[in-house]
Write a structure and sequence with these properties.
Blueprint lengths: L8 H12 L10 H8 L3 H8 L2 H12 L5 H4 L7 H15 L2 H20 L5 H20 L3 H25 L2 H27 L1
Helix pairs in contact: 1-4, 2-3, 6-10, 7-9, 8-9, 9-10
């Protein structure tokens, strides 16, 4: 008789896999290397994840906990101040030392999605969800939909560029100065767009 699957095993494997990747590139991840490091069989990994691509998706989902679009929907954004505060809160989470390797994994997964042309890649999905979330928040503040989407996409590109700077240079002060300047400019543009609608 086959042994029943242990429902608690997969989350443990995901957490152990994230710990394994702290100092390794995502591109080096194989079932064999991971199985050896975790002291499990490759069959165990295939059983729980099916494929390397699914393993990577699961790792990026788990890696994003605390900063995913789903959780960001819970943040208040009913005023411009609250909207800007939610962006700043995301940056505060990003710059925590324990999250730097998470950002590296996310950036690496983003590049893999682009190289593999994976339309269903989790980072591509998250990017579009973040853009949609920002667009809806700006529309709710009074920005017309076209400008709201452009500003939301620009904000995402800016945020990811500054994350890359932070991961590459590990200079929190310099990256934060750039972030603060970019958010001030973003706020000025949003103020102007809201003002245009009010006229």
């Amino acid at each position: 008789m086959a042994r029943k699957p242990d429902p608690t095993r997969k989350p443990v494997l995901i957490q152990q896999s994230l710990e394994f990747l702290v100092d390794k590139p995502l591109s080096s991840l194989t079932f064999r290397s991971l199985a050896r490091a975790l002291d499990v069989s490759t069959f165990t990994l295939v059983y729980h994840f099916g494929s390397r691509a699914e393993l990577v998706r699961e790792l990026i989902r788990a890696n994003a906990r605390g900063s995913s679009p789903e959780q960001a929907r819970l943040l208040p954004a009913d005023t411009l101040d609250a909207y800007i505060a939610s962006i700043s809160l995301s940056w505060q989470w990003t710059q925590l030392p324990e999250n730097l390797y998470r950002q590296r994994l996310e950036l690496e997964a983003t590049l893999l999605d682009a190289v593999e042309h994976d339309e269903g890649g989790i980072t591509r999905i998250y990017f579009e969800q973040w853009v949609s979330l920002g667009t809806e928040a700006l529309v709710a503040l009074g920005v017309d939909r076209h400008h709201a989407e452009v500003e939301s996409r620009l904000l995402m590109n800016m945020f990811q560029g500054i994350q890359l700077d932070l991961v590459l240079n590990e200079n929190v002060a310099a990256s934060t100065a750039v972030f603060d300047a970019a958010v001030r400019q973003h706020r000025q543009r949003i103020d102007a767009l809201i003002g245009e609608v009010a006229r």
